[in-house]
Amino acid sequence: MLIGPHAGIDVRTLVLLAVLFVVAESIGTAVLPDVRAGISPSSAVALASVVLLGPVGAAVVGLSACLVIRRLAVVKRAFNGAQFALSAYAAGLVYIMLGGPVGSPGREDFPAVLAPYLAAVATHTVVNLALMSALLWTLGAVKHLSRDVLGRRPLAVVEVTSLGYQMVGLAIAAIWSGVGVIAPLLVLFPLFIARWTFTQQANEVRAHEATLETLCQAVETKDHYTRGHCMRVAEGSAMIARELGMSAERVQKIRYAGMLHDIGKLGVPTKVLQKTGKLDDDEYAAIKLHPTRGYEIVREIGFLDEALAGIRHHHERLDGRGYPMGLVGMEIPESARVISVADVFDCLTSTRSYRKAWSVEAAVAELRRCAGTQFDPRMVEALVRAVEREGWRTPDIEEPPGGCYGQIATAGAGPGDLTGPGGRE
User: Fold this and answer.
1) 3-state per-residue secondary structure call for 273-334
2) For residue 52, how many other CB atoms are within 10 A of its CB?
3) Which residue, 340, 361, 379, 395, has fewest beta-carbon neighbours within 10 Å?
4) DSSP conformation class of 3
5) pTM over the 0.90 mark
């Protein structure tokens, strides 16, 4: 920025764009709370400054991120300013190298200006993503980033989403000469409305998650033997669903079903849930009611949708020997077939009072042995591929007596000893 060149930079335009950039960056929408990442309309202003001011002016506008109206440490302000300045400068260089005109483009500049502008957008996105990835790698935070419901890396999703804002930058630049500072307001106002809607939706999703997590905790308080089991089954179910190429919405619904698959245990007597010995016929009959009771407990929760079928039928078997309805083969809802595999896999790889945890390899072998009779082979192989690629988190501690019941046999059970009266997972 100090080296220049500074010729042709309109100071008034520079100041106005810098102010707009600071305002836009101050109202970013957080979409990845775990890593404090998000999207904001500021990228539209940044790309407009590339066209209106060139690389040096765009870098100055990007550096104004240091003044963002949020509570940030000085080092974070410095990094953000440098990041946006470098991204904008690189985008400006590419824009000029490809023949893009500096200043408000007129009718005669279209459609020729589109190619250099698109290249500038791509450059801005790549540089931004590279700098953020380098930072997270340096801080050791990359290993903590989980795959999101779209099955892509979170930072990549944020950058792709911001492309919509960046494309608006050319529209701002095109009408700047006619209406000046009003241009961003005219173009961005609909996006602010969309942002507000997105924020409300994100808040609703977080509220749903909090509600379901509370229900999971209620189950685990009564059946403390399965501590963490519901969340692991939810993650395993989501891994299978993503591997099968299901839509983001379906992956989320199946994840919800995994979280709540044992909610019906709230209706099972505690003495039955925490019994360490073999269950008698009456006790096992009470256990077999928990999928139906779970369905009855949550069926009025509208956003669960497909998850309800997964909760009700996750103990069905392909050979018809499952419960509560004895469904056969493809009569079993797909979500239930997914959860069944994730449920048993987590139980096998968890330590119980009556046996030690199986290794992942032994659990995979057992799932494959039972594929076609108890489990859907597609679901088993999807889980195997996902676990091989992403790994599987097993519980570190030995859990107290109690149990998740219905599929893996009693104390001392080995491979092949599957469900029978008095059996447990």
Assistant:
1) HCCCCCCCHHHHHHHHCHHHHHHHHHCCCHHHCCHHHHHHHCCCCCCCCCCCCCCCHHHCCH
2) 27
3) 361
4) S
5) no
